[in-house]
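lol ok so funny story. i was supposed to be doing the assay writeup but got distracted and ended up predicting the structure for this chain instead. priorities right. anyway since i did it might as well share w the group, maybe its usefull for someone
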Amino acid sequence: MTAPVRVLVCDDQMLIRTGLVTIIDAQPDMEVVGECGDGQAAVELAAKVTPDVVVMDVRMPVLDGIGATRLLAGAAVEEPVKVLVLTTFNLDEYVYEALRAGASGFLLKDAPPTQLLHGIRTVATGAALLDPEVTRQLVGRYAARIRPTEETPGDLPLTPRELEVLRLIADGQSNSEIAGTLSISQETVKTFVSRILTKLGLRDRVQAVVYAYRHGLVT
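and the output, tada:
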């Protein structure tokens, strides 16, 4: 019997937090192991309860979700925790920074419960959660704020085909969509994605999107 996914919920609005806890705890394959109302408390509590996934709000007092995500899942963390960021799309301008800080994905706060639960399960498996349309709008909207590197695509350790796949990932396409676009199998796409992540030292597709924008592969 598989152990339930251990979830820590962090949101400064008690009503929202209570709703999240109720929805998650009602699932037979999930268990809420803690809840809190600010990022600093999330970092401290995570060290005690060792969650599999942290459901993290962005705007909170004491320490916001970006700072907390960086401490829980940033590049310098030896044993990163998987973080699923919740955001209000029209208000939060910091989701890109949260993804860059190490979040494994994000959902809109008004997403239905089924999407929330799917998101938690997806992130718990180690996969990234990126809704294609929201990704295009969100990252594209703030692309001008992303400081590009001086490297050119020719400087990157990728083949032309791998660069093409990376651009499609950054455009928010799923593996099946990439397969259709390039007329190749999904297994081949998975191989390309794995090579790209390995060559660039990236953890998941989220980081690949950030990387592509940082290197001017998409605009």
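The longest helix spans residues 186-200. The two ends are 46 Å apart (CA to CA).
back to the writeup now i swear
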